[in-house]
Design goal:
single chain, about 350 residues, alpha+beta, 5-stranded mixed sheet, 12 helices, about 65% helix
């Protein structure tokens, strides 16, 4: 039980990437299903033995086409409820597997139902309790259908081995989920290391610029600011580079405390930082936000450099224009920063685009 609870918690912590993978898995599954059902319906036309299956095969082919276009839609639009959609889309196949293994072919063992119960959930990444509950629900439906539609001796044979098969299926499901979650966690860790500055844990220059370019392509308004620590060289020269590094980390922490999680915070390099404050287009709010940042920094005491206080100069551009190039936005804020430096320490200059 603890294993399943722990696995569920790990999946919850990686929910965004889990949903990304579910959308990709659904598209992959739909492509495979469409290919196989296309071959099956061709065989139903060509081979006389399969003519009687033409109608169900045609229905499966139509289902596969619908599944394919729904999967593409979910991937393109990053549909949030992808896990619920997966359960709903796989349910007709599960019901079909149960019917083939009971009512439609009552004299044969229930291999199809067992395969479907085992294989289909492997394309899903979700809370293990939900997936196992989904499997057990259809296992119960199959058992009831087999009891009503199969001869007694065939039903007994099915039920004799069925619990063993289900134990293997659930064990396989848990093992596969554990491997998938480990893969997601490793990917997220590697991506975080690649996107973030090691010292401050803010976005690095490449990833920060990429995220702002994405916002600009979507015409998301906001304020782009470049921050520079005043007289930063004095921290390094007088107290050593470790103290300078501590100042950079402190600035990062204070930036996080003042700005929102939706804002893009990144380190340009050295003692320069950048912020894209999403939807912050009111100049008064802009002034208040950066005044708060400066006040918090001024109150911070660095034990190793008690005679110095952290002061920053800021150049920012309030951006409301459509289809704006990042290079133009950057130059505007850089020019504003130059003006702030020219007028002394702890200054804010605002421009507009």
């Amino acid at each position: 039980m603890n294993i399943l609870d722990n696995l569920a918690q790990r999946i919850k912590q990686c929910s965004e990437e889990v949903d990304n993978r579910n959308r990709n898995n659904l598209l992959l599954f739909s492509q495979g299903t469409l290919f196989l059902t296309a071959i099956t319906i061709c065989m139903s036309f060509i081979l006389p033995y399969y003519h009687w299956m033409l109608q169900p095969h045609a229905a499966l082919f139509v289902y596969s086409i619908v599944l394919f276009f729904l999967a593409k839609y979910c991937l393109r639009n990053k549909t949030k409820q992808i896990r619920t959609i997966q359960y709903l889309l796989f349910t007709p196949l599960m019901i079909g597997g149960v019917l083939v293994s009971s009512a439609l072919d009552p004299t044969k063992p229930g291999v199809t139902a067992i395969l479907f119960i085992c294989i289909l959930p492997l394309f899903m990444l979700d809370n293990p309790w939900k997936i196992i509950g989904y499997q057990l629900a259809f296992a119960g439906i199959f058992a009831v259908s087999a009891y009503y539609f199969k001869p007694y001796d065939v039903f007994v044979d099915d039920m004799f081995y069925f619990p063993v098969y289900m134990a293997y299926i659930i064990g396989t499901t848990i093992f596969v989920l554990m491997e998938k979650v480990s893969g997601v966690e490793n990917y997220l860790l590697a991506r975080t290391e690649a996107e973030h500055d090691n010292l401050t844990e803010l976005y690095n220059r490449a990833s920060g610029e990429a995220k702002i370019n994405q916002l600009l392509r979507q015409n998301v308004p906001g304020t782009f600011a470049i921050l520079d620590i005043d007289d930063f060289k004095m921290f390094n020269d007088n107290y050593g580079h470790q103290t300078g590094d501590e100042v950079l980390r402190v600035l990062s922490d204070v930036m996080h405390s003042v700005f929102r999680s939706s804002d893009i915070l990144w380190r340009l390099g050295g003692d320069e930082f950048a912020i894209y404050a999403v939807d912050m287009t009111d100049p008064e709010i802009c002034k208040q936000r950066f005044a708060k940042l400066m006040q918090k920094l001024d109150k911070i005491d660095i034990p190793q450099a008690s005679t110095l206080h952290i002061s920053i100069s800021v150049g920012c551009t309030i951006c409301t224009s459509k289809q704006l190039e990042f290079s133009r936005l950057y130059k505007s804020s850089d020019d504003a920063l130059y003006e702030s430096k020219k007028y002394g320490k702890g200054q804010l200059t605002i421009k507009y685009l």
